[in-house]
Design a protein that fits this description.
Radius of gyration: 15 Å
Shape: elongated
Distance between the termini: 59 Å
Helix content: 55-70%
Largest sheet: none
Length: about 120
């Protein structure tokens, strides 16, 4: 029983840092973050307090990885615009639109946005 409690403590708030980094870098509020992960604003608030469920940790982590990579390549104040504008190499979709449906395309998203040129 003790190992179960230890595991629960270890995983409590797991993914919350990834989630807050994603929100901060992309300039998203709880509602927009909920749309990105197809959950409600209330669920995002709950994830921030209690951690991301294990079945969603990979998605949140991969999108956070993309956000951090963009932070390295671009001026932070420009990232919210970059992730919401359509990018030709993503079939005219934005980074956020692609990330919502295919979060595992992190590398492609970062590479596509590195060649970003506003219209």
């Amino acid at each position: 029983m003790a190992w179960i409690k230890a595991r629960e403590r270890a995983y409590s708030r797991s993914g919350a840092k990834d989630l807050t980094d994603t929100m901060r870098i992309f300039g998203l509020g709880a509602t927009a973050t909920g749309q990105l992960f197809s959950v409600s604003r209330q669920t995002v608030d709950r994830w921030l307090v209690h951690g991301v469920p294990l079945n969603r940790l990979a998605d949140v982590g991969q999108i956070a990885q993309a956000a951090r990579a963009l932070y390295v390549y671009f001026r932070p104040e420009r990232i919210p615009q970059i992730v919401t504008e359509s990018i030709p190499s993503l079939g005219g979709r934005s980074v956020l639109e692609v990330a919502k449906h295919e979060p595992r395309r992190v590398v492609e998203l970062v590479e596509a946005t590195r060649s970003y040129a506003p219209s």
